[in-house]
Amino acid sequence: MTLHESGEMYLESILVMQRGGARVRSVDLAEHMQFSKPSVSRAVGLLKNGGYITVDKDGTLFLTDLGREIAQKTYDRHTTLTDFFIALGVDPAVAVNDACKIEHCISDETFAALKQHIALQA
After folding, report:
1. What is the distance, to the nearest Å, from the Cα of residue 71 to the centroid of all Cα atoms in its chain?
2. What is the model's pLDDT at position 3?
3. How far is C-alpha 24 from the chain's CA centre?
4. How do residues 81-109 score in pLDDT, each as one tens digit?
5. Interior angle at CA 65, CA 60 and CA 69, nearest 5
């Protein structure tokens, strides 16, 4: 299963919520992402069938190793890009929004070069 931008967003959201100590269920994810419950239910089914998450008998969502890897990669891109844009003087709200768009389409090569550039500037 090819994971699209929306799938990456779901995985990243689950990761962020779990890091915050929350038990993540579909209803919690829908509230967090401000999506409808049916949309989240469908996405959860696709992520489960793709091997990115598991769901226990109580409905709690867990990232698989593959899901966690993708979520962490997406989250790293999001935070790095956000911080970079803010350092450039971009308004923080705009920086977060732009980072969220770019994190899904930037190549591994370009992102690695950007991280290297940031490290050299520090």
Report:
1. 5
2. 81
3. 14
4. 999 999 999 999 999 999 999 999 999 99
5. 110
Specify the pLDDT at position 87. Answer: 94
| Domains by residue range for the chain, with CATH | 5-69 (1.10.10.10), 75-121 (1.10.60)
Q: Please, what is the end-to-end C-alpha distance for the chain in angstroms? A: 39
CA distance 113 to 98: 19
* Alpha carbon distance 85, 114 (integer Å): 12
Alpha helix segments (H runs only) across the chain = 5-19, 26-33, 37-49, 65-87, 92-102, 108-121
- Type of residue found at 115: K
11-42 residue pLDDT tens:
999 999 999 888 999 999 999 999 999 999 99
How large is the average pLDDT for residues 38-65?
96
Interior CA angle at 72 toward 69 and 73, to 5°? 85
